[in-house]
Amino acid sequence: MDPVGRSVRFLAKLDPSEPHNFITPCKKINESKDVSVFLVSKAYTDIMTFTFQLNRSMFPTKLPDGESQAWPIGTDGVQFSAPIRQLQELLSKLEDLIQEVPPDTGPRRFGNISFRKWHELLAERASGLLRDCLPAELLDMPSADPEGPTAEAELTAYFLGSWGSGQRLDYGTGHELSFLAFLAAIWKLNGFPTSDPGVEERAIVLGVLEPYLELVRTLIKTYTLEPAGSHGVWGLDDHSFLPYILGSAQFAPAIDETDLTPEEGSLPDAPDPGGVAKATSVERERRTNLYFSAVGFIYDVKKGPFWEHSPMLYDISGIRAGWGKINKGMLKMYDAEVLSKFPVVQHFPFGSLFSWARDPNAVAPPTTVHSTSGPQARPNVPDVGPSTTTRPNVDAGTRAPWATAGAGSRVPSMGSTAAPWAATRRDMPPSSNTALPDASRLPPGPMAPTRAPWAASKAPPPGDVPTKAPWAK
After folding, report:
1. pLDDT computed for residue 7 by the predictor
2. Cα 234 to chain centroid, rounded
């Protein structure tokens, strides 16, 4: 699947007149090779399609008078349907649950132990919460198999996976992915009303996803949740990714229903991307834009220079081709850094709504460090995955998926210790290394590849040199 998604795509809904076999979702990704199977599955196609839908809905809209309508957080131009308001009520109930489980005041090294109690209460009350806020006819949709589960079993699996790990006391992009799947599952079950393209999707983003992200940030701060994985300066963000996709779309050029999704340019009055490194700009924009709202949370929980604790976002802030270019890169990066990484997708469960079955139209992806960083198959264990799902590419390394290196450029043989754009940058200070010679500096685990070139230095790049994102030409 094209990870940019410039054309209009829509996630298919179930036909209510046809019987459907629901399946209790279960784990399928147990070894790194399973990621390659996932990337050609129907589940992957559906997730990306729904992501494209939500993303396109947040682009400003061309109006008949030649003006454009932007879609900021809190805009009066978006009407919320009954299902959206019911999901808002669900989020409100979960926020109230925090009051029942105050954080533990005892000494601790990592996450607050009270989060486990919050998670236990959530699991105990999940069915009641869903039934209070979702239509019974949706939850009780029967399976064609009399012995099979109802739709509630599939919805519950993704709902419970959306709130971090009570065992590990952490939260990350895999949990965010689960909530995206929860909303997409409701969509597939005809839980949202039919409307003009983009209308209900826009309401989902601003009426449900945005409040969800705010609730998650409250959970992170209340229970001091750890990042799931080892992101930090090695990736885009410790916890979330979707707000960077959707927030960059909010500032991109206006479109109508027939336009392809723009790949460059910005709304005329959009702020400069470099504003993410300025606290005053972030504070001004975070109330209305998802991208700056996510950056604002980083300012809330991290100290020190922005270029030092968030080098990838700082690098992206140097894009000169506009927010459309940033949006295109974010979509590709989500595909490569979230959906293609074993540590992120290993816990995602598969049922009937998000099927492990192969998409007959899928194109097999190349094998990269992102999908191979995980447990390998043991000897004498048969390979059950299709042999056509991988096309080894020894030079793929950790290059950013949208890097535009010239012909013949190659990723350094150090692989996971090389900066994604090491082969393309021309503006690095002479003293900076494009590869990390000391592999011991890498954090544990397979989340290490996305290190910015100057992360090890004590000062940012020269002020007169504009920063360049991995996909900048």
Report:
1. 62
2. 16
